[in-house]
Structures are given as structure tokens and as C-alpha cells.
Specification:
The protein is an all-alpha fold. The chain folds into two domains: 145 residues, no CATH class; 197 residues, Methane Monooxygenase Hydroxylase, Chain G, domain 1 (Up-down Bundle). Helix 3 packs parallel to helix 7, helix 4 packs across helix 6 and helix 8 packs antiparallel against helix 10. It starts with a helix and ends with a helix.
Length: 368
């Protein structure tokens, strides 16, 4: 019985963790099935094209689906018009002529797609418009119109499924991605500051910071989709740009702290700073984790008093060390690392204020 309950708990946790991906799989399956049924009902000559379009257009978020549908439709329209014109105006009754016409049809569109990857469907559509009539005995004009209709059917089905079947907004995904990034930064910051008095090796630094860059890249991609939703007036959430820029700055602060933490601080700075740095590590990491939870649930930001007090204690200890002249006997390298650590922490404190403002904006938007 206990094993059964444990299994179901693990299963539910796994489903929650992969909810977005499983939802996407459900939407893709639904879109493929509906597009095929509609294409067969309309008697389209190549239902495969409608099904593929529906699958391509159906994405994880509404914003990404809208952008994919627009890009795919524009590429298909351009490829169908150009490929159809080439097929109509240039005769290609034998193999060599067909090869020459294929080069003329594909080469310009391939160049366009190389410079504008969003129009990658254009050369593919031109190829289909040119070659399908040789297989089905239809005309190039009919082939072009069929491709456009098939893409319109698939695109409409994909967009409809994205909106109606467990829709997922990019802003909600951005909040989740930002929360994951903040939690990663919190873990790395705690480890860096706890060990700053002893020094951390290069390999350990790389291990601690592994994944933060990928998380920020994922957040940037989702943020672009969220802005597509905003521009299409599909969402009224706050701009994702300030939150992304704030997290990037906090990550840069981490890099500064990491550079200062590569070698241990000399005595007596090590023993003097260890308690203040440890308190600051715990307070800052707890604050970042609380901000992550607030973003996910769109609650107001946590109180900054504890982390502000920790920053003040560290600044006071640094001021006392300097007043006693302990920094005058440091080597140039040790002094550089000591002041670099202080500068990075001061920058982080300012960026925490920006983070608090961003979390407040996202919480205010949820109440409107």
C-alpha cells in the first residue's frame, strides 16, 4: 500500500513537472487529427500538407503559435506565388528543362530563406508547386492554390487548438522560467558567498554556474513569445524586458563575485568577514528564492528588510576594516579582489531593488 501511494505521488509530481510538454503533445495530436479530418472533408489533394502545417504551427504557447502561423503562411504564400509564376511562364516539358526551371524556382527563395529563416517554407512550397503537377496532372496555378488552401487549413486548426485545448500563455511560462533562473542563482550565490573566505577553484565555479546561462537563454526565447502575445493584444501582462534585463544584471554580479572568490582572502580579513558574508549569503539566497515563488504565483515581492540588513552589516564590517587600516598591508591582487567583491555586492543590492519592482509589476498586473 505504501509503495502504491509513493508511486502515485511520484507520478503526480512528474506530471506537474512536465505539464507544459505533455500539454503540447496533446495539442499536437489533436491538431494533426482535426486537420486531417477537415482536409479530407474538403477534398484537398494533399492532406499531408495541412497536417504538417498544423503540427508545425501548434507550439507551447499562444504567442509562439501565432508567430509560427504568420511566418509559415507568409513563406507559403511567397513560395506558391513565385513557384507558380515560374512554372506557368517557363516551359519544362522534358527533364533538362525541368531541372533548369527547378533551379530558377528554388535558388532565389533559398537565398531569401538563408537571410530570413522565418520564411524557410518558401523554397519548399515552390518545389511542391512545381513538381506536384507532373505527378497529378494538375496545372501549376491549381497546385499553388491547393498549397495555400492546405496551409490555411492547417494553420487555422493549429491556432484554434492552441487557443482552445489547455491554452498556455507565454507570460505564465516566462514567470516559471524566471523562477527557475532565480532559484539557480540563489543556489550559486549561497555557495559562492559561503566559501568566499576560503576560495573556490575554477572547475567548482563552472560547476556552480552551469545551467544559469541556458535558463536565461530559454527565458529570452519565451519573453520574445510573450511580446508577440502583447503586440497581438492577446495578453495585457507587463513587459518581460525589464525582468529579463534585471536577471542578466544579477547574473553579471554573480560573475564578479565568482572572480573575487577564486582565491581565499588573507587574514585577518577572512575571520572578520566570514560571519557577515555567511549571513548575507543566506539572506540573499532566501530573498531570491522568495522572489521566484512570488513570480510563479503572481504575489507581491517578499520583504527586503532581512537582506537589506545583511548588506548593511557587511558594509559596516568593511568600513571598520578600512578604518583600522587592515587593507593597507594587502598585496595588490588581494586588495583588488577585496574591493571587487564589495563592488559586486553593492551592484547586486541595487539590482535587488530592480527585481523587487519587477515582481511588484507582475503581481499588480494579475489583480487588474
Amino acid at each position: 500500500m505504501n509503495r502504491g501511494r509513493a508511486f502515485w505521488r511520484l507520478l503526480r509530481a512528474s506530471l506537474r513537472r512536465h505539464q507544459v510538454r505533455l500539454t503540447l503533445a496533446l495539442r499536437v495530436t489533436t491538431a494533426a487529427t482535426l486537420s486531417l479530418a477537415i482536409a479530407l472533408r474538403l477534398g484537398l489533394p494533399l492532406p499531408l500538407w495541412a497536417v504538417l502545417t498544423a503540427v508545425i504551427v501548434t507550439q507551447m504557447s499562444v504567442g509562439r503559435s501565432v508567430k509560427s502561423a504568420i511566418d509559415y503562411l507568409l513563406g507559403t504564400l511567397g513560395g506558391a506565388l513565385y513557384g507558380g509564376a515560374v512554372a506557368i511562364l517557363l516551359p519544362h516539358s522534358h527533364e533538362l528543362a525541368l531541372l533548369a526551371v527547378l533551379v530558377i524556382a528554388v535558388a532565389p527563395l533559398a537565398v531569401v530563406a538563408a537571410f530570413y529563416p522565418t520564411l524557410a517554407a518558401a523554397p519548399i512550397t515552390a518545389i511542391i508547386v512545381l513538381l506536384v503537377p507532373t505527378l497529378t496532372q494538375s496545372t501549376p496555378l491549381a497546385s499553388a492554390l491547393d498549397r495555400i488552401l492546405e496551409v490555411v487549413v492547417g494553420g487555422c486548426v493549429g491556432i484554434a487548438v492552441t487557443f482552445l485545448v489547455l491554452p498556455s500563455r507565454a507570460h505564465a511560462q516566462a514567470a516559471e522560467a524566471a523562477g527557475r533562473t532565480l532559484e539557480q542563482i540563489a543556489r550559486v550565490l549561497r555557495a559562492l558567498l559561503v566559501d568566499v573566505a576560503e576560495g573556490i577553484g575554477i572547475d567548482e565555479l563552472h560547476r556552480l554556474q552551469d545551467g544559469i546561462g541556458r535558463s536565461l537563454a530559454e527565458l529570452a526565447s519565451i519573453a520574445a513569445e510573450a511580446e508577440h502575445e502583447r503586440s497581438a493584444r492577446l495578453a495585457s501582462n507587463p513587459n518581460t524586458g525589464p525582468l529579463l534585463r534585471t536577471l542578466l544584471r544579477v547574473r553579471h554580479d554573480l560573475v564578479g563575485i565568482a572572480r573575487a572568490a577564486q582565491l581565499p582572502l588573507p587574514e585577518p580579513l577572512k575571520s572578520r568577514l566570514r560571519p557577515a558574508v555567511a549571513d548575507l549569503a543566506n539572506a540573499a539566497a532566501d530573498y531570491l528564492s522568495a522572489c521566484a515563488g512570488a513570480l510563479r504565483t503572481q504575489r507581491p515581492p517578499p520583504s527586503p528588510h532581512a537582506v537589506a540588513a545583511a548588506f548593511d552589516c557587511y558594509r559596516a564590517e568593511v568600513g571598520a576594516i578600512r578604518a583600522q587600516g587592515l587593507t593597507r598591508v594587502l598585496s595588490a591582487e588581494a586588495a583588488e579582489r577585496f574591493f571587487a567583491l564589495g563592488f559586486a555586492l553593492e551592484q547586486m543590492r541595487q539590482n535587488f531593488r530592480d527585481l523587487e519592482r519587477c515582481v511588484s509589476e507582475w503581481a499588480d498586473a494579475s489583480t487588474q
